[in-house]
Structures are given as structure tokens and as C-alpha cells.
Amino acid sequence: MAFPYTRKRSPHARGNERRRLLLDCARQLLAERELDGVSLGDVAARARVPKGSAYHFYADIQDLYAALLAELQRELLVVLSRPIRARIDGWQDVVRALTRRGAGFYLDNAAARQLQIGPKTPPQLKLSDRRSDAAIAALFEREIGRRFRLPPVSGLPQVFFRAVEIADVMFSLSVLEHGTVTTAMCREAERAAIAYLETYLPARLERRRST
Asked: What pTM does this model have?
């Protein structure tokens, strides 16, 4: 009797599965506990992965958090990159739409709230997230620029970067004070970012004919 051939998983494939499992379980634990209340051993136990294997993939919990943060940053950028369906009358509406979309992402992701805008995020992870914010700032500039004619302002990418950072400060204050991003603080983030941008951009920009 012939038996069907069963292809064995390679060590590389098994390693990827375990990494994925550890990242997913870290997300789960961050929805239940504070950032500094989770150890790599806790994640390994939740994932039912041998502790030694967990340390083979990640040097410590901060190393795992760095990998998870990079994943969350990519997910946020994907969410922000989706087409804007809301009515856009002025460039300020683009800022509002993207800021609210970001707030929604944080509301739905406890791990993102803790790692990206939480008060206990380690400095090295905060620095990594600032670099990610540069990509978000470029997206803000691109989404406004494809609808309106931006003026020739020197250092405009840095201006948008600072606007994103200002919005993030409001989100961070909301998490610090309320444990989440409230509707009121989302509106504050919009106001603060727009007010800063209006020191560089006219309140009304010429709309591009193609959009």
C-alpha cells in the first residue's frame, strides 16, 4: 500500500510560526496588562512555546516589543493610506480625516496604544516610532498635495512631521489621563495639528482640477 507523501515543515517555517505566535500573544497580553507587567516568559507561556525557544527569537521582552511595534507601524500606515471617502472642502478636512482614522486605529489596538502613544513606552521604542511618524507626515503632505496646490514653503516635510507629532502628543495625553483616545482629545489633536499647519499654509488653498 502506498502512503501519500507528507512534506515536513522546514525549521525556518517552524521558526516563523513561533515568531508569529509570540507576536500575537504579546498583543493579547497588552490588551490585558500594562506594558511593564509583561515578561518574555509570560508571552512564551501564553503561546505555549518553550521559554528557551522564545529567547532564541528575542533577546528579551523589549526586543519582542520592538518587533511588534514595527508591525503596528506598518499596519497604521496601511490604515491611513486607504482612500478618503469623506467630503473634502479644504485641506483641513484631510487632516481631520486622517487624524480620526489614526484615533480609530488606536482605539481598536490596545498594543498600539501602549507601544506607540502610551506613557510607559521605553525611550528607544519612542525614537523608533518618531521615525515611523516621518512616513505618516509624508502621507499627510501627499494626500493634501494631490487635492490642493501646496505653496513653496521651505522645509515643508518637517512642518508636516511636527504637525503629526503635535497630534500624537494629544493622543498620548488622552491615554495618560483616560487610558484611551477619547473623542474630545481626538478633536484636540485635530485642532492643534491644523493650528500649527496654518502658521505655514494659507487657510484656503487652490484646489487641483484633477481631483
From this structure: 0.89
